[in-house]
Amino acid sequence: YGAPGVEFMGLHEENNTVMQIHFIPDQCQLVTLLDDNSLHLWSLKQHSGTSELREENRFTLKGPPGSPPSATQITAVLPHSSREVLYLGTESGNIFVVELPSFRVLEDRTITSEAVLQRVPEDYCNRRSCELVEALQEHPKNPDQILIGYSRGLIVLWDLQNNKATHHFLGNQQLENLYWQRDGSKFISCHYDGSYTQWPVSSDNRQPEPLENLVPYGQWLPMTWRLSKRLSHHIKMYHFLFKALLRIFVGCSSDFILDAASLDVLTPYIGKCCKFSLGELKLKLDSFPSIPVLVMELNDEDAEHVVDHAEADLLQDQEGYRWKGHEKLKTRDGPVRFEAGFQPFVLVQCQPPAVVTSLALHSEWKLVAFGTSHGFGLFDHQQKRLVFVKCTLHPSDQLALEGPLSRVKSLKKSLRQSFRRIRRSRVSSRKRRGGSGNASEVQEANAKFDQDALQEMELAPVQRKIEARSAEDSFTGFVRTLYFADTFLRDSSRHCPSLWAGTNGGTVYAFCLRVPPAERRMDEPVRAEQAKEIQLMHRAPVVGILVLDGRGTPLPEPLEVAHDLSKSPDMQGSHQLLVVSEEQFKVFTLPKVSSKLKLKLTALEGCRVRKVTVANFGSCKTDDYSENDLAVLTNLGDIQIISLPFLKLQIRYPCIRKEDVSGIASCVFTKYGQGFYLISPSEFERFSLSTKWLVEPRCVVD
């Protein structure tokens, strides 16, 4: 499991929430626990050439007559490595043992809370009871020992052979979960207040180890955290992942910067290549969107090298602009050791240090383009030098220079002022009409007006026709898309490398590039010269740029052509430029850039393009036929298929609810007509637009 395209699905007959899933070791089986306290055993079985997840058995743990439901309410499940039994912890503190696959209860092997408390110090027993079983973990080296964790903080190492406790660990905080260190010499307990503690098992000392010893340098272990009470979340799981590549080479101080999207998930990580001073660490939760451009290369061996860094000043030729946001990140000097895999070798930081809004990489030319709300630039990652920068700011784009926190304040202020103006105009019009009324009527009328105004604001995008936008609108210089193409930009006889950029204000920039041949690639610089600038009349944001070859086919990925994975483009016939804005599709001839045809998407419906990609649709009946079309997602949640190069609407599917803004924003397409979008912060939906590539999983496990 884990390979692309390998998936299995099982559906419970009961319409209940799945609370827990546990694999049975080495059996192609798993057990699920539902919120109705039922257990279900699933197996992967082959049927008609594919493997299916089938329910083999189900079971509900029952107590003696007259016992309360809590006596058998399952709270923890441990599939034993023997593959013969399950250990079931309950709210009563008792642990029941059931046989697999029959789910027969082995009553003589029940571990009662009374038996566990026999050797616990009296003062601890008086202060606390066992309460419910919160965690069960098998010893990684000794299958005859299991770790039992109770909610009040008591942890017991239990000998299954002799049916007795060998160690007691007396915790002070409410327990959430337990995890063994791989050699079994220590385990970690995590608690409701956001803390976790490491306990040694081999010695007689049952006290937690000092926090400074928790994270030896060079090991994949999380640090000890105690979140402030204001942000105190209980820790349910550990994620031994190295996510924050930025901290490989960014200097870390006592202010530890989190990359969490919200306060619901505060998951700091540490990797082999960073050594932090442990102790009290302050969590800095300021908005910090300054993410530099990282260029990484794949290396199958560990390596140690210096990460080069460069700066791209997007405002270098502009006067009168002043950045009011945060400062750029400080880079770390000296060599850094990296594990095998993708290893950063160069970092590009933009000035002002705003969010990178678009990226494009051409691996054959060794070039990377990047854009922000202030402009865009081109970087030669082979020579490690900046080729050029282009500022796209309009004189009215002051909001783009204020930084994220100031921007929120400005938007709130703007909304308040708008409502005040509308109220004043309503009052003045009432006076002109000579109308009068008591205070309650006025208050009721104002409340109704506010509600109507909000409804109008919500409905406006759907009802709005295409209309030209003002150049004074904020964020017109925001770079939405970047695109590399080898095409005819100067004349129709010679093609050359080019870079295209589209902005929020409906402007398209085109630059001719001169990339030296391979034998002189390191000796001569890459040169760039602006060749074209197109301004769309309606000034809608440009969300996609595409060049079609002489056959009307989108230019293939250069890397795929180099490895014979795609056909080479037709460089004999005339090329065409497709510019996709939020509101229409427009085809231009190249190199003259004269308008050829267009498709207006908005019209009376008011739908706007949110995502667009080229998708290859193959025939489900023959391998000899396929066609390239545009897959378009709109703000209404519809997906439209539009033919190339003639821009004919082929079909339209309702896909995502138009109210599901986050689902629409998260949607991505694959190159063969499938897609994914989030239906919650932790779930995604998969769909297919192609009859050849269905979402039905057809996989086999031997």
TrEMBL record:
Gene3D superfamilies referenced in this protein's UniProt entry, alphabetically: YVTN repeat-like/Quinoprotein amine dehydrogenase
GO cellular component labels: cortical actin cytoskeleton; plasma membrane
Alphabetical GO biological process terms: cortical actin cytoskeleton organization; establishment of spindle orientation; exocytosis; Golgi to plasma membrane transport; regulation of establishment or maintenance of cell polarity; regulation of Notch signaling pathway
InterPro entries listed in its UniProt record: WD40/YVTN_repeat-like_dom_sf, WD40_repeat_dom_sf, WD40_rpt
SUPFAM superfamilies noted in UniProt: WD40 repeat-like (SSF50978)
GO molecular function ontology, one term from the record: myosin II binding
Repeat (WD) residue spans along the chain: 11-52
Compositional bias (Basic residues): 423-434
Signal peptide: none
Domain of life: Eukaryota
Region (Disordered): 423-445
Record's keyword terms, sorted: Exocytosis, WD repeat
Family per record: Belongs to the WD repeat L(2)GL family.
PANTHER family: LETHAL 2 GIANT LARVAE PROTEIN (PTHR10241), LLGL SCRIBBLE CELL POLARITY COMPLEX COMPONENT 2 (PTHR10241:SF20)
Protein name (record): Lethal(2) giant larvae protein 2
